[in-house]
Every structure is written in structure tokens, then in C-alpha cells.
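Check these lines:
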Amino acid sequence: MSRWFALAILCAGQLMVILDGTIVNVALPAIQDSLDFSSSSLGWVVNAYLIPFGGLLLLAGRFGDLFGRKRVFVTGLVVFTLASLLCGLAQSATMLLAARFVQGVGGAVTSSVTLAMVVTMFTEPGERARAIGVYSFVQSAGGTLGLLLGGVLTRAAGWHWIFFVNVPIGVAAAVLAQRVLVAERGAGRGKSTDALGAVLVTCALMPAVYAIVAAADHGFGSARTLGSGLAALVLLAAFVVRQARAEDPLLPPRMFRYRAVSGALGTHALMISGVFSFQFLAVLYMQKVLGFDEVETGAGVVPVSLLIGVMSLFLAPRLIGRFGARAVLLAGLVLIGGGLGVLGRVAADGAYLTDVFPATVPLGIGFGLAMPALAGLAMSGATPQDSGLASGMFNTVQQVGASLGLAVLSTLAASHTGTLLHDGAPRDEALTGGYQLAFRAGAVFVLGALVIAVTVLRTPRRSPHDASADGTGSSRTAEADIPSATP
């Protein structure tokens, strides 16, 4: 069977995971009204998915190496599809959050091995570049499709159908993957998987996010907030100790001795934390303040996804080849920070064309430039034997940064809105004030990312052989491991 047909199956599975990351955002207000979520707890509809996704990516990738990537990919599709069905059938907030958690597990298992399988199937440099281009395009298209489809389905059939739509895609992808994908032999069961490390880091994230969210309702000095924060610190410390002592750790400490890897991960975490505020809070602003319905909201954020796709696929590689990854990253971060700054001035009596759309252009262009450049810098700092682990760390930091950033920013928005309402401000002004504060805080996160990029990251030196490996000046090894993503 054609490798390109196999690539289509892999991309279909990845499309389902990417689509689920954006399709939920447009339906959040409808979910809130249907299941009685509070403003501060609504973020858990997203976080319940992101936490296991980010916490299990490294372990799931390790399972792929040990037991075969095809087996892991199909298993992830089955888990994700069943969990999607449960999400659609949910009649309570508790049931939805539990099913979302299982969805995150399935998403991590599926996504952890997809890019590795693409790289393994296409070994010739030209074919590999085209295959990765298709994979990257599907990720960008999945983000856009999710925003549009989420609005249409929620409007026409109800929010439950944003989850039901995954079921036929997942069933078809799992059946075809079992038939078409070639099974490879894993390293075997004798190798360590550091399951304890994965459990510790995932469990550390849960009380950390809960502590931030609980602060909006109970205060930062409450026993519930402080207790959750302390539990997160203890679990994180246990994870660090485990990694230092484990024979085959999930996250080897040596990785942080690579300056480029550490700097890129820190930059990535802060950038994602800031950018994710747009996808979550801009949707709420358009629906709750501007009065948009779900379809209008989905169309309103499409320019960002389209610009990301255009920049990351066509322009960013050329700019990186000409000016260097660090320079392109810095320009992208400046644009992202500027876009969030524009959103920090949205008005209670504003309009889409004057308040939201002007921010979508710098956000889309900036993220489309920053992501490929940042991924290339992260991969350039690792040795060849650690390149796969560096790629997994990059994806993990993306999910963790999105989860914690969303918790902080949504809590800030809800808390400030509550204060303004208590002081007698009208509803729209109070909501807008909360969103303004969150967008400005997101801009501060991106400023922190810019500081790290300026002070820590350096453009990697390239040999003439590396420079000639492809038209962008990046080596094939790095290119093969660079993941692509949308906010």
C-alpha cells in the first residue's frame, strides 16, 4: 500500500486530536450554560484534556519505542474515540471532565508517535520534506476547521456534537491504520518506561492548576489554595528526585545542560502561556460582550489560523534560512506581544473590526514565524541521540504551558470581573475589564519569553554541509524532528 495513503491515515488521526483542541473553545459558553460551570471552573473543560495530554506525551512516546509505534497509535485512537463518545453523552460537569481526561490520555498516546512514524516512512530528503509539509498543513487546517466546525455544530445541533464528530473519524482511522500501517518491532519489554515519573509529573500538574483556579473563589491565602499548591510542589520535587535517581529516567537531567534546549523550552512555555489567552478569552469576549453566535465566533478567529498556516508552511522556512532562527523568533515574539497588547484595549462597546481583527494579524504572523524558529533552535541544541527526547520535551512544554497559562489567565479575568461587579460596574464593562487584564498579563508572559530568547538563545552555527542540506539552511535531522502546532 502507498506510503502516501499511510501518511493520510496518520494525518487523519492527528487531525482528530488537533480538531478537538480548538473545537471545544467556541462551544464553551454553551457548555457552561448547559452544565452549570462557574466562570473560573470553565477552564477545566480545556485543562482536563491538556493535563494528561502534556503529562503523558513522553511516556507514550517511550511506549512506542518499546512496543511498536503502530500498536501505540491504534490504541490511542481507540481510547480517544471512546472518550469522545462519552463526552458527547455527558449529562453533568463531572462526567464531562472525567471523559475529557480520558480523551487527553488517548490524544497523548496517538500524537506521541505520529511524527516519528512520518519520519520513519519517508527517508529520502525531498519526500520527507513534502511529507512533513503535509503533516504541518493538516495541523494548521485542523485548528481552523475546529473553530468553524465547532461553531456550526453547536449552533445547529448542540455542543454534544462537537465530540460526536470525532467518532466516525476515529473509527475509520483505527480500522485503516490496522490494515495499512506497517508494524515494526519495538525494543522489547525489558527496557524501563519510568511509569512512576509520568504519574508524578501528571499528578503534580493537577493540584497546581487547581490551586490557581481555586484562588479565584477562595483567595490565594485560603487553606484549599495553599494546600493544593503545596501538594503540587511536593509531587514536582518527587518527580525531580525520581529523574535524578532512575536508571532510565523519563526526563534525563542532562537535557537541561544543553543551553539551546533549556532556553527554547523556557521561551516556549511563556510564549504558549500568553498566546493561549487569545483562543480562550477572545472567544468569550466575542460571545459574551459583542454578542456573537457560535458561527460568527468561529469565523472571527479563523484569520489567526490561516496566517499561521501560510507563515509556517511557506514564509518562515525562507526567512529562517536568510536571517537565522533567532532573529525570526524575536520578530515573531514582538508581533505576538503587540497583538495581545491590542486585545488588552478591547472595549465594552467595541466592534470586531476595530477591537479584535487588528490583533489577529500580528498574532497569526507572529506565531507562524515563532513556532518553526523556536522548534529549530530547540532541536539544534540536542545531540543526535537525544533529538527524539528533545522533540518530546518540546511538545510536552507546549501542553503544560497552555494548561497553566490558561488557569492563570482565566482566573485573573474571573477575579477582576468579580471585583468590578462588586464595585457596581455594569456587566459588560466588568467582563471586558477582566479580559483586558488577562490579555495584558498574556503580553507580559510573551515579554518574558522575549527576554529569555534575547539573553539565552543563540543562532546555532551551521557547517556548509548543513546549510546545503535544504533550501532553508537547516539540517535534515533537525527538520525531521520539528513539530508544528497551532495555538
Q: What stands out?
A: Residues 462-487 have pLDDT under 50 and may be disordered. The CA atoms of residues 131 and 397 lie 25 Å apart. The radius of gyration is 21 Å. The longest helix spans residues 387-422.
